[in-house]
Amino acid sequence: YSLEGKAALSKLAVPLIQELPESVFKQLIINELSSRTGLANDRLLSVTGLDVQRQSSVQSARRKQQVRLNQSRLVEDAMVLILRQPDLAYSLQSEMLAQLSKEVEWQLLSEIVNGILDRETVSPVVLLSYYQDSPYFDYLRGLAEKDPMLSADQRSTELADTLTKLLSDAKMQQNQKVIDSLSEKPLSSLSPEERELLSRHTRRGNRSL
Question: H helices of the chain, where?
């Protein structure tokens, strides 16, 4: 690319970068853009106007609409890992991915993972840019700025363990709801299978005391 071409390419990312507060994550984005265009950081800031931060009225209005999801700690831990290292999505088993799509609370996580799988390569910066106009942008950016303090190999194992725990906890909660429902019914109204299920649960509860 010529200098003009590099400047034009880098300016495409300006609206996203201008949204970010001063932070380590913002510097990582600028560093990646600098690497892709071949422009030094100070030159990049100059030709794109990023050295003079400006917020448009459209951006201000959109940011007022930002929301924060009420996600569990396990869901957020998984999203931090995916946002920091999108290629981890390729290590997930299809059965696990299918389970993620079944719970409302996990829909955004499932959407992010499937979005990565639908594309050949996705960097953290590009992944976040897909949600630039989403009401979840600030929330996702905040998660992306968290550092899990793990190596690449550790992140893969941590993600698998986190999602396994997430699915296991959800199954336990669902089973408990079934037991609670059966406990509220007269014993005479239960089928033999339901009585056996309730009995096994009671025996396990007594052993744990």
Answer: 3-11, 14-19, 24-37, 41-48, 57-63, 73-84, 94-100, 107-117, 124-129, 137-144, 152-183, 192-208
- Contacts of range 7-15, beta carbons closer than 8 Å, 24 or more positions apart: 7/39, 7/47, 7/48, 9/36, 9/37, 10/37, 10/39, 10/44, 10/47, 10/48, 11/47, 11/48, 11/49, 13/48, 13/125, 13/129, 14/48, 14/49, 14/50, 15/59, 15/132
Q: What is the number of other CB atoms lying within 10 angstroms of the CB of residue 72?
A: 13
Residues 7-34 pLDDT 10s: 555 556 666 666 666 666 666 767 776 7
Query: In sequence order, which residues have a C-beta less than 8 Å from that of residue 78 and are 6 or more positions away?
Result: 109, 159, 162, 163, 166
Q: What tokens were used for 76?
A: 């957020």
pTM over 0.85: no
Q: What is the pLDDT of residue 77?
A: 95
**Beta-carbon contacts of residue 65 (< 8 Å; ≥ 6 apart):** 135
123-177 pLDDT, tens per residue? 888 888 888 888 888 899 899 989 999 998 899 999 999 999 999 998 888 888 8
Q: How far is CA 123 from CA 82, 97, 114, 144, 163, in A?
A: 10, 20, 14, 12, 22
Q: Say yes or no to pLDDT of 111 above 90.
A: yes
